[in-house]
Automatic annotation (TrEMBL):
Pathway: Amino-sugar metabolism; N-acetylneuraminate metabolism. Its EC number is 2.7.7.43. Belongs to the CMP-NeuNAc synthase family. GO terms for biological process: N-acetylneuraminate metabolic process. Pfam families: CTP_transf_3 (PF02348). It comes from Rhodocyclus tenuis. SUPFAM superfamilies: HAD-like, Nucleotide-diphospho-sugar transferases. It catalyses: an N-acylneuraminate + CTP = a CMP-N-acyl-beta-neuraminate + diphosphate. GO terms for molecular function: N-acylneuraminate cytidylyltransferase activity. PANTHER family: HAD SUPERFAMILY MEMBERS CMAS AND KDSC (PTHR21485), N-ACYLNEURAMINATE CYTIDYLYLTRANSFERASE-RELATED (PTHR21485:SF6). CDD domains: CMP-NeuAc_Synthase (cd02513). This is N-acylneuraminate cytidylyltransferase. It is an enzyme of class 2 (transferase).
Amino acid sequence: MKVLALIPARSGSKSIRHKNVRSVFGKPLIQYSIDQALSAKSVSRVVVSTDSAEYAQLAEGLGAEAPFLRPEAISGDLSTDLDVFKHALEWFKNNEGWAPDIIIHLRPTHPVRRPEDIDAAVFLLEEHPEWDSVRSVAPAPHPPFKMWNIQDGMLQPFAECGVEEAWNHPRQALPQVWLQNAAIDVTRPRTIIDLRSMTGQKIGAFPMRDFYDVDTTEELDRAVAALLLREEMPTGRTFVFDIDGVIATLAPANDYERAFPLDDNIALINRLYDLGNKIVLFTARGSATGRDWVDLTRGQMSSWGVKYHDLRFGKPAADFYVDDRMMSVSDLSSWISTTPL
């Protein structure tokens, strides 16, 4: 069985510029999909379809093939998956005389999937020759039975489910519905070429738990958090922590003598320290007023039992800090709380 994993990665994303190659934990976003496809036992070839020579070179360096550049005509905002996959199949036929039996659609914007899931979806289609395709789905976060159309100023139910006035019932009392999650689609060449469809009409379900397709910065943050939980425990890394609001309570009128320790967060920092990470404390104390808080701060860190390597002052006072390496305390806690010392 010849199985092609095709990863479409055009360069013209508008919502997040160059999102397909954006760095996530030191890897281009597309690398997660390439690595997963290369690790899947069912996959014969991993190919990236892109309109960018730079993306193609990157993909080849990561172990994928990029034997062609996608034409500009099918690389725009309104280009369809069908155009992209039809072009790839025709290119392989005309240039290599090769055709896969099954094609997997792996979107680089859904980096959270397992190679075993890819294999299971392929196996499902193999076991059902009468199906045109298999599509991954996840539980819909919002039931359509609580959605509406507006006609002549009046609300009309968007969907019916046989439950009287479903829109007034708790979500838990309504039928489970599923949303395509853009993680894994498996189809056949005949579905694309003969039926001119990515799915056909006979679509097998591959249920998954989560939805992490990235189209906005908020969705990217969710995917990053999910990838974080799959990473190994951190060691040998550098973590920089603010003090007030992270290690200490926010002090009224910036009178830091009145700050109290946040014990749970301090325990988290100490655990990172014990795991062999470098801990840097960086504070804006005194930046706005010019007052010297060095001795008080060092004394607080000592009496509160905070383990750290370096304490730095001079952080500019600000209402907001924007940083591409930002991590919330809750995300950090979820990451390192999964494995005991």
